């Protein structure tokens, strides 16, 4: 099948792309059915939300019932802060709260109060003060105080030795975190950052508040703590590995009107798998996330069911181990980048998951090189002939005219349908174009993350997420030296010096020019081989109310299910 798909014509996809080219970035979004996240409305410097109360968007929501939710839930560990996969937050998010959050009623576009009912931002943009709710209880009965918030963000912003938190880079400008009193916490910045950037960082679904004592009792590492006390609307009741995680309603939740549900049951199903799709189509689950396109189409055609899709905050890529031969040579990395036919790789998984071609920047963002320009570059053209010729010349210059090692490169593959299909296609492309032999090694997610962090691989196909659409987030996390998700171990002095300039530049035009300069370095030096960019299908029965995922950027910010309810008799 792989071989047959490698030879397929691309005329259908070209038709879509040509439509997009007529209108630049906006038309690209329209052609793929996407409404980009865009910039938030201006964040008020002072906000009094003492009277704000979140409720379901529909009138007269019903109480009771258990929502059966199908989603991948095989976490590598249980420490949400240290995680970078929906396998963790997808189930655990409902156990926690944030300082502030994104509103589930408008697809997360608006930032609203959460554990902090109000905030103040100083005129110089260097001090953020949050005022906490009183009488908020953790699941273990302890009261939330500013000391818990400080302990949480001390660990996130400056992780202790042995702790790796992908979102730390969002708070690199935080110089001090001060407790002003029991219910007031203050963040001081070494230099001002745009308020939208900082408030979006605080509102990220990943940055949940945990108890100071919980951190102290576990030496600030919660990886093995299955039931971490949160303040959220649901509490952990029972968990069966690779089967189900059962949550029950938190009767002492601070928002007395929420949640509406008596409980949640998260049933494990691999992303895009037939099992995940069949579970929701057969009625064994009420809602399913990351289903395959076939299931989504069937749901749309089924009375009483709905489906929609939205782009995910993820790059699908193949990481070279830049610290080992042959990938310590940028010419080899560039050669592999050129021969991976990205249009074919999108086509290979078209029946499993919807994807789109892109490079090192979110292709549906305002920061990306427009698609008509990107498609003129080697490595992105629909005709790969010139790219393969250049790649062979680079390999010859690097001393690999006859390929690399005869025993085969160790190609680490996450045990997900899309990654396994891509691994086979990439294996064939490298062998046919460059004489590069690979041995596929498929592993579960926890092993994949452990091996890639320890350098126990030559190539590794998988995915990593960002928190924000802004390159200041993922440039630091994915590509900068020692970034928490820089899995290849790549480092480039020119790029490392450029990123802080991007972070601090306030003029939009100058900042975009710096971003494109950074993109040129990434294309030349290649820290990861971008495969494509992901779209997510959600499917549910129409009796599931209180949710609105149509404009999500990713699936990590609105994961609490506190406004969801079941319209059943």
Q: How would you sum up this structure, described in words?
A:
- The protein is of the alpha+beta class.
- Among the domains are: 2-32 and 312-534, Dipeptide-binding Protein, domain 3 (Roll); 46-52 and 96-217, Dipeptide-binding Protein, Domain 1 (Dipeptide-binding Protein, domain 1).
- 31% of the residues lie in helices and 21% in strands.
- The chain is built from 18 helices and 20 strands.
- It has helices spanning 2-6, 11-21, 24-31, 86-92, 146-157, 195-203, 212-217, 274-281, 293-300, 330-339, 342-348, 371-374, 385-397, 417-434, 445-454, 471-479, 493-504, 508-525; strands at residues 46-48, 66-71, 100-102, 111-113, 116-121, 127-132, 174-181, 184-189, 234-240, 244-249, 263-268, 287-289, 305-320, 355-356, 409-414, 438-443, 459-465, 529-541, 544-545, 565-566.
- Strands 2, 9, 10, 11, 12, 13, 14, 15, 16, 17 and 18 form an eleven-stranded mixed beta sheet that branches. Strands 1-5-6-8-7 form a five-stranded antiparallel beta sheet, covered by helices on one side. A two-stranded antiparallel ribbon has the order 3-4.
- Helix 10 (330-339) packs antiparallel against helix 13 (385-397) and helix 16 (471-479) runs antiparallel to helix 17 (493-504).
- The longest helix has 18 residues, at 417-434.
- The protein is globular.
- The chain starts with a helix and ends with a strand.
* Estimated helix fraction: 25-40%
At CATH level 3, the topology of the domain at 2-32 and 312-534 is Dipeptide-binding Protein, domain 3
CATH superfamily of the domain at 2-32 and 312-534: Dipeptide-binding Protein, Domain 3
Which regions contain 5 or more consecutive residues with pLDDT less than 50? 1-41
Structural class, by secondary structure, is alpha+beta
Largest sheet: 11 strands, mixed
Rounded to an integer in angstroms, the radius of gyration calculated over CA atoms is 23 Å
Number of strands: 20
| Net shape | globular
Task: Determine the mean pLDDT.
Answer: 89
| Percentage of residues in strands | 15-25%
Name of the CATH class of the domain at 2-32 and 312-534: Alpha Beta
What is the CATH architecture assignment of the domain at 2-32 and 312-534?
Roll
Number of helices: 18
**N-end to C-end Cα span:** 48 Å
